[in-house]
Every structure is written in C-alpha cells, then in structure tokens.
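Ticket #4471: structure export looks truncated?
Reporter: QA, pipeline team
Priority: medium

Steps to reproduce: submit the single chain below to the structure queue and open the exported record.
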Amino acid sequence: MAEELRKGLFITFEGPEGSGKSTHSRRLSGELSADGYDVLHTSEPGGTSLGEKIRDLLLQKKEISMGPYAELFLFEADRAQHVREVIRPGIESGKIVICDRFNTATFAYQGYGLGLDMGLVKTVDLAATEGLCPELTILLDIDVATGLQRAGAGGEADRMETRGDDFHEKVRGGYLDMAEQDPARIKVIKVRDDKDQTYQLVKEEVYALVERYKGSE
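Actual output as written to the record:
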C-alpha cells in the first residue's frame, strides 16, 4: 500500500566533491520507494533535456573557456528549467522529490568558491527557483583531500574537480558556514569510512522528516 503524505516534500543532497551525494541519494530514493512512498530522484546540473545540454557545457567541455558569471548563469538557467519542468510539478503532485545538488551548491561553489558577490548570486537564484526552498538539505561533509581522491577514482575529472585545493577548501568552508547559519534545514553528516554507517545517519534524518509530514496539516 502506498504511503500518503499530506503534501509533497523537497529534499536535497549537498557536499564537496567525492562526498557520496549521488550514491546515498539514490539509495535513499530506492528505499523510500520500496517502503511505498512516491519518490522522484533528480539531479543538477541536468534533469531536463535542456539541462543535459547545459551540463555538458559546464562539466564535460573543459576546452571551452568560461568566465565565472557565464558559469553562474548557466547553472541558474539549468535550475530555472528544472524547477519549472520537474521539481515543482513533482512536489505539487505529492511526491518526495530528492535532488542531488540544488542552490546551496551554487552559493558554495560560485559564491564562496569563486568569490562572486553573494547578493547577486542569491538574486539570480531567487528568480530561477521562484522562491522554492528545500524542507531538508543533507550536507555530506568530507575533507577536501579525501573527497578529491574518491572523486578522481571514478574516471576523468570534470571542470569542477580540476580546480585547485584552495577553491575546494573555500567550497567546503562555505557549506559548513551555511549549515551553521541554518541548522534547522541543513543537517551536516560527517562521511564515515563505512558507507553503511553514513547512509544510516542520512536515513534517520530523512525518515524523521517524512514521519513529521505524514502527520502535518
């Protein structure tokens, strides 16, 4: 029997490179589905036909020269289409929408990491998201050296992964700073060597939220 929520939920996964966002978000989506919930798993950049083309420009085409503002606007163009075509319709239909990266990544990577004016970044993002904010953000925290080593083990590095350690330290610091500012929404989970231990902590946070929404008005 399908489990019913009183309204849709939006949950995002964030973290530095190699933190295991994709692995844990997909595992969680599968377990929630098996438990009878209506789940939609998606990711950024990507998630739509337009988004896949933007993703290719942002991450795969390293030979293309791209300034920081062009990078920001491409991420936000991807997000605007993603919200309108996939995320908001999913939430409005009562699904649990789980997204591998969302706007907290933009604040961390383009704001903290590249040093773009955060006021501008948030203004552009507000237009792209139409004010949509996740109910819960799982922040998987891992030290930069270990994370980059794990990310590099999967094959050729993308545009983000090839940036220097200083950039990635700023990104990680930005994530932790935002979590400190918004602890009710952003839950920090330290990545363990044992993936199952990490996943169990993720599951506890998410299922606690789901239970609250089953009983909310």
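Status: closed, not a bug. The export was complete when the record was re-opened. Leaving a note from the reviewer for reference: The domain at 9-214 is CATH 3.40.50.300 (Rossmann fold).
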